[in-house]
Fold this protein.
Amino acid sequence: MIVISGNEKFYKLIYILCIMNSVNKLLKALNHTIKLKKDNWTEQHTYYALNTTKKWVANIIPSELLKRSVKKAVESIATLSEGNIFYERFPDYIETPNYGDNWGRLANYIEINNRAISEMRDKYDCCGILSMIKILPAIPPSAKSWANCVIISQIFPNIYGDGYNKGPFEENSIYGLKLNAGYSSNIISYDIADKISPEEQLKAFNDLAHFRGIKSGFRMVISADQMKVCYPDRDDVTFDWRNPEHQEIYIQECVKLMNLGFESMFIDSAKHIGGYDMANYTGVGALPEYPQIQYILNEIRARSGKTDISFVGEKSSDDFERYKNMGLTAGTDYITGDDFYAVRELSERLKYMRDYAPGVEVENDNNEGGLSYEQRLNRINSALFGFYLASDKLPSFMQTGDIFPLRYDTNTHHIMMTNPSYSEDGNPESHWENLFAKDDGRYYNHKVGELFAHALGL
């Protein structure tokens, strides 16, 4: 019999953690085992796409997922595996769904505010990336002909109040961020950072998203006065596009994220790059010049080694050649989905533009409410079916509330500008319960599930 000493056991554990994939490493860091079992709750809530093996959970309210452990979330994701292959241990190597280099031209982009669903405990909040993992089973996977891409709203620290929630009318904007300062305390679980790094936590999310058949991306700002550059030995300074060091830090931060598995970058205020249409610019501070952003986007692609990154420009949709030559893949806010036939005819008119197209907007991040459930569902229907051929589909853009309706007294823009806790007892479970609509939200989520069920086989 071989006896293993305490020191040997310790070093064996360290060795296992070093070679373990990010998902299993996350499970270990949270004191879970890495052996997975089929999840009965998931099987009871599974929706199936027509004419394909794609599946997800629907007819739910988000708190039902968010209150579960990360282990249960991983088991739910494994239970939804395409091809009905159940993995008792999460695979070591996961590839992103392959739709070619120009996949972003046809994709549905669904932005989820990961800060809003983070763990809010008393005045603190954290672990938004763990909440994103928990919500992944309820994001519909990609279709046969085009990808679904989930965009997360925050990765970097926000300038004021990072790691804290505030009152519902105290500004705590997600649009102001710090570079060269690591990752947001709202998003990362720093309690386990000695066991799994922030980068590995983000990679675990991406691996799970890709296993689900979903692509992933992040929101990024470009307005200079909405960014700070941080240094360990001196005060933060306001970002300056004319400063080569600042430009280099910006590129490096984006490349790091692409190397962790992200595949898309949503660029806030992209329409106004190079001083274009500044009368309608609502950001704060200077913007990069047109050749400068061309260089930056090309550098992000080149340094990450990814030829298939999708760069999405906010409102960059009225001068197609300008935005295509800038390096963008898709642009928002060109047409809503209110008129199905207008969307279908636009798809037909632009079907030969294969590397850039403007998109159908269900809702954007500036929405302050007012859309009925019926209007949202109609817009989603137009976005998913507004074409003659699925290969000619336009990109589309949705927000959290288009999949999981928010409570009546908040809206998409409000939770981007503020970070309130709706907890009644200071615990995250109560916040998750109260952030979203309940019975009517469940029924709406069911109706969204029906639309995707018909679309994903196309």
